[in-house]
TrEMBL record:
Stated name of the protein: Protein-disulfide isomerase
UniProt xrefs under Pfam families: Thioredoxin_4
Gene3D superfamilies documented for this protein: 1.10.40.110, Glutaredoxin
One MF term in the entry's GO annotations: isomerase activity
Ranges for domain Thioredoxin-like fold: 36-219
Coiled coil regions, renumbered to chain: none
Signal peptide: 1-20
Family matches, as InterPro entries: Thioredoxin-like_fold (IPR012336), Thioredoxin-like_sf (IPR036249)
Species the sequence originates in: Sphingomonas melonis
UniProt KW keywords: Isomerase, Signal
Amino acid sequence: MPPVLSAALRFVPAAALLLAAAPATDWSQVARPTAKGAYVFGNPAAPVKLVEYGSYTCSHCADFANESAPVLKGQMIRSGKVSLEYRHLIRDPADLGAAILARCAGPRGFGAAHAMIFATQATWLPKLGTYQQAHPDIDAKPLIAQARSYMDAAGLTAAMRARGLTPAKINACFADKAEVARITAMTGDAPVEVRSTPTFYINGELQPPAGWDKLEAVLRAKGAR
């Protein structure tokens, strides 16, 4: 056998071993925007597709995000079996402000910002009422001005600056009319049966109101692992 061919054959098993040892994709670290502006966490080709209409000022949404994370994100989405599409259902100016800030982090930072906002909701949400009482004229301001004022008062603007967003970037995000329209359009485009947050669909089927424990059972019945 020619020496060159013999040497090449000796490297085939090693190459095969390297391919076999290549780590599987950690889909929990993937978040991509859709054409309509929602964000999909995980494998876009996942066989089980969970859609959530949520709000950052919704306490039940925060409960779901925080309770589900170890299994939904840590196992089901990570494995590629489940994807989660998060659609904004804007309830109030503060919710809009939080959505603008989360999305301001871009596709690479949205997942972490999204999780942080829900994880710290119990800390920042009460500050909104305090601010509103101290500024009874807040409702007279334009919507975006209200959203920004609430985020500054809640400390979320500072939290996003600590995550690397510059003041100029944050200002630009609040001034981005196209992005704001994209966010609010999700509320207008929601199906008529979506009347509260969170509302879930699994593979296109509307789910009755339920906590994570019941939703987990439905996901597993659909093949989530």
